[in-house]
Amino acid sequence: MAKQFAVVGLGRFGTSVARTLYEMGYDVLGIDSDDDIIQDIADLVTHAVTADSTDENALKSIGIRNFDVVIVAIGNDVKNSILTTLILKELGVQYIVVKAQDELHGKVLEKIGADKVVYPERDMGYRVAHNLVSPNILDYIELAPDYSIYELQAPSKFIGKSLEQLDLRRRYGVNVMAIKHGKDINISPIATDLLHQGDVLVVVGKNEDLDELDENR
To answer: Angle of helix 103-111 relative to helix 78-90, nearest 10 degrees?
Structure first.
């Protein structure tokens, strides 16, 4: 069966996550304490309910523990974010993803059992900064403090060459995870695959190695 998701807190971030998951074909439950917000999102998710996420009985009645992933996307109320996460953990939710306002908030969430902490504002700032500095970096995902995934426009000197000829692992210490060509994506590239005009490389490695690759492209 496909994973079932619940999103708690339907501000801009929560609504975006809920709507995207629903459009991808997943069952999504939207939860918010504001009736007007629930009415607005009712047609954009599988189910939408008005509930106080800091009320353990309310979450029990929804059957929150039956969802595979619960995303806590509560806005600026750090106290409610932490309390909601604690309740979800105690109820036995399998996987809890929580939006954090800052590093301190994130550390508290990790200590009380959040499985994944996300920083949407910070991460977007990183992406914007990287795109401003190097427009050839189309997207950027931080995996850990020192490791990232880059989507990099294949430079002209790479065109017509194979991955074996480019030897990016030896030269820069990065691995090519996939090659995008228009709407097609090769998720298992092999050494003899040639790069064409307009191709996008999806590469993973240490940040310093990825930056060196971009600088010497």
So the answer is: 20
